[in-house]
Amino acid sequence: MLFVAVIVDVLIPPEFSVFPLLVAAPVLAAPVYSLAGTIATGVVTELLGMAMGYTKGNVALTEYFVRFATIAVLTVLAALLNRAMARDRRQLKDTREVAEAVQRAVLPIPPARVGPLDVASRYRAAAREAAIGGDLYAIRPTPDGVRMMIADVRGKGLGAVRIVNRLLGVFYEAAAHIPDLTDAVDLLEELMQRIDAEEAGPESFATAVLIDVPNDGSALYIVNLGHPAPLLVHRGRASPLEPSAPSLPLGLGDLGRRRVPVDRYALPPDATLVLFTDGLVEARDRHGTFYDPVPFLSRPLPTAPGVILDALIADLTRHTEGHLEDDAALMAVARLPDAPNDAHKARSHTCGVAQQCQARQPHPDVRPAGSPRRCPCHPAPEHPAHVQLAPGRAEGAPEGRPADPSPLADRHDDGGLRRSERGKGARRDRQAVRCRGRLKRKRPRISPGPLTCVHSAGFEPATF
């Protein structure tokens, strides 16, 4: 700008001058450049102003002094303005960092996998202020599956943070101890009523969506409390899961709350559920048009929740040109393709115990007493219900395998074994009962009762 002013000043007649416009250069540089850059701009302006007066040839000494003093004063003012603006920028940056730290502490990032679900979350803060919003999301495993919540508390700042913190605490406790979703909603409503009674000022309320997902991940049980409906993205189509009946937000139950309805929807394995706060759908472009996520989510997209949320935020940024007026919290979940059900988990647990037993095979002449509980995955062959060891071949022993002619044990009424040691050969004889004696001392603690030791072909199962 300075050099353009010099060229213009040279081209115009001598009776005209652009010096009055030139003196504004240091002030214009203050919000753009650093302190050194602002001072350098003032120095260059001083030199150019003196040079312009010299080339004109009609500038008196007094006018030289006035030009010099004017540019010097404006340069000092520009430097002070630059320092003040830099200080404000640092304070705003520190405030934003503190706000982000508090936000992360109150609203931690959920794990990537919870129960049968793949989980992703994003938080898009408003660009116009550093105040902490009241948007929240949470997901927790329950004894019956997974419970999640997304909500938007009225207001901003520390007051909203306190409400968010208390809501999350009640939600976590309810997820662990209250299986019924409507009972959990009642607890959250009671909390908001207490908060409204304790704190003076505007009435506190929060819109929310609570969802229960069973262990197999096949269904969604949804309670919507005045919140934007979640979107189920499946095979190139985004469907809003609207509630069957409207419900009041949390904290407004005294206006006439009734039992909230619970709506059930199927969750296919290749579908993704997208939850969000009103900051997403209330975002506007320069023409005032609200953002609608349905057309974008109806395009062919990957099913990974994180990829969908990143693409959605990128499209939101294009729509608003980076100027978001309100915070937006987003969470997406997808059903894992390999989510086991309860029967599979129980079968895997039992087979794991049987494999530990299989590594310790008993002597074929030692047979169990009683009716053993067999591994459901590897049924054992039939066997006698008693043990009898005698000279010759023991009952049930394989053909061609005679037993030790010296009896090792007698049968007790309780089915136990009584060993008799005879000289130095007793050490070898005791090897015959190692399955019962050794495994009895090393019983896996995860088994509540007798287990069947599964053997290879030709051997009988032994209970220990």
From TrEMBL:
Signal peptide: none annotated. The chain crosses the membrane at residues 21-44, 64-81. The keyword Hydrolase applies. The keyword Transmembrane applies. It comes from the Bacteria. This is PPM-type phosphatase domain-containing protein. The lineage of its organism: Bacteria, Bacillati, Actinomycetota, Actinomycetes, Kitasatosporales. Residues 353-449 are annotated as: Disordered. Residues 117-335 form the PPM-type phosphatase domain. Keywords: Hydrolase, Membrane, Transmembrane, Transmembrane helix. Residues 409-432 have a biased composition (Basic and acidic residues). GO terms for molecular function: phosphatase activity. SMART domains: PP2C_SIG (SM00331). Residues 433-445 have a biased composition (Basic residues). SUPFAM superfamilies: PP2C-like.
